[in-house]
Amino acid sequence: MKDFKHKLMAVMQHVVIVNRKEVLLLRYSKYQGQDVEGLWGLPGGHYMSGDPTGDLKREIEEETGLRLGGSPRLLKNYVVMFPDGIERYGVFYLYRLGSPGRPVISLSSEHTEYLWAGRQDLEIPFISPYHQLVVEEVLESSNIMNF
Asked: For the whole model, what pTM was predicted?
């Protein structure tokens, strides 16, 4: 066991918020650091308290002003090593809003703008290929309205 090295792992949660066949995307500010300014991703953040749903809802409200009721549906998970040497375990959830129009979003300092994106809007720089893949899969789903 002398070769064993303890690895740090951060747990990230993201949610694909769907409304009227569109997905909410957020553009990162300088606030995030690590060369992500201007890239697009999903709302979310770290899992820290022992209550994953509570942490996710708190992050969503902080980043977008949206208060999600109910529970999001689990979509996928992934593990990736970042250049900083910290392995990230990520979880993607799906949440469907029932709003007749586009909800108003109140951004935190972590993001500079938002986009309700449809299939035609995905030629933008994503923060990770995982975010883009999950968004594409959700938007391509023939059952998007059943989520």
From this structure: 0.85
